[in-house]
Amino acid sequence: MEKTELLEKINSFPYWHYPFSLRDGVVIHPTNKENAREKIELRDFIWPVVMLVKGGSLKGLRVLDVGCNEGFWSLEAHKSGAAYVLGVDARAQHVEQAQLVRDALGIDPSHLEYRQMDVNDLSREQLGEFDLCLFLRVLQHLPHPLLGLQKLREMCRGHLVMDVKLVRMEWPVLFLMEEWPEGLLEGTNRMALRPSRSAVELMLKSCGFTDVQVKPPRRPLDHSYFVGKRAVFTARACAEGERADLSYQLRE
Question: For the chain, how many structural domains are there in total?
Fold first, then answer.
């Protein structure tokens, strides 16, 4: 694709959430300019967490990125040496944007693939198993979050890294709320259940994950991570015969 054609295609999309540096000096800037700084700060926090849970390398691993949006995190996994990365998103536009970025970078689709799929459509029989599952800023948008985590556990043979928007309550509760304005999350439901921190921990354990941890935030992350409105969780899929402890800790 020629540079002019590429720029026209980039500009044909009404909104970009993430920054990307492509070839020939082409840069995609988020439509909301403040998002560029926020996404880089988030990457600089989350990606070391991802690498740590996988022993410092993704070489040779299979990675699943659920709710991949424009492929920002899928691309990080590919650059970190993953053998195969699959990004799935319910919205056709996001899949098209992710494919555009991938193709502009000259990445083989057999190594970095994108598909339009809802989390409820995931199945091990269709997609196989994955050593690492990314579930970043998705859970709070689901009307059935427990089902979503069960689907992920079916696919996961290694670790899960999840970024979640939380409701600040000490009990393990799911707070029913209206989803974002119609159209912004086209392809998703209008109602969602936002969890408390202890609810996330309990749901993960009940679905077959263990070693559930919340990673302490560090500056300059967004303020929401420091006041309990967001958190990054890591967990490991239970081995055969292993069962997670379903106890939880109440917090203010």
Answer: 1
Q: Domain with 51 in it: what CATH number?
A: 3.40.50.150
* Long-range pairs, 221-229, Cβ under 8 A, ≥24: 221/41, 221/42, 221/45, 222/38, 222/41, 222/42, 224/165, 227/168, 228/166, 228/168, 228/197, 229/165, 229/166, 229/168
Residue 69 located in a structural domain = yes
Q: How far apart are CA 249 and CA 197, in angstroms?
A: 10
- Among 94, 175, 189, 209, which Cα is nearest to 142's? 189
The answer to the question of residue 252 being in a domain is no
Does the pLDDT of residue 181 top 60, yes or no? no
Q: Is residue 26 part of a domain?
A: no
Domain annotation covers residue 8:
no
Lowest-pLDDT range of 123-127, 158-162, 189-193, 203-207 = 189-193
Q: Which domain holds residue 134?
A: 33-237
Q: Which residues contact 29 (CB under 8 A, 6 or more apart)?
A: 16, 19, 36
